[in-house]
Amino acid sequence: MIKYKNMEKNFDKWNELKKKINIRDPIYVSERDIWFCSVGLNVGSEQSGKHELFERPVLVIKEVTLNTFIGIPLTSNKKKGSWYVEIKSTNSSAIISQIKLFDTRRLARKIGAISIEEFEIIKNKLKNYI
Questions:
Q1: SUPFAM superfamilies recorded for this chain (predicted)?
Q2: Each residue of 45-57: pLDDT tens digit?
């Protein structure tokens, strides 16, 4: 266990879970889906998952291959700034600065999907951010 600025991170526990996740079968995803995703225990300011499965909600932006997708982690905290986009239908914010490629084996369960209108807003803000 590593202690950093009064915060302990159990990387060993995450590593053991990651080994189990790696042998799962891939899952099919669609744009606009929101899934609980085992994003893991990450370094510094990177968004980490919570609880036993190191999960957080992730919005599927684009399927890349049958096994991978580009996703944006979500937070239930109302956030302001050019790297956040509010999703009113889910009372959450997309953290567009944390966009990344995910393997579908990290997915645990589907939460739902956002509307086409909200999805277009997020894509436009993401384009402007980049």
A1: Cell growth inhibitor/plasmid maintenance toxic component
A2: 556 667 777 789 9
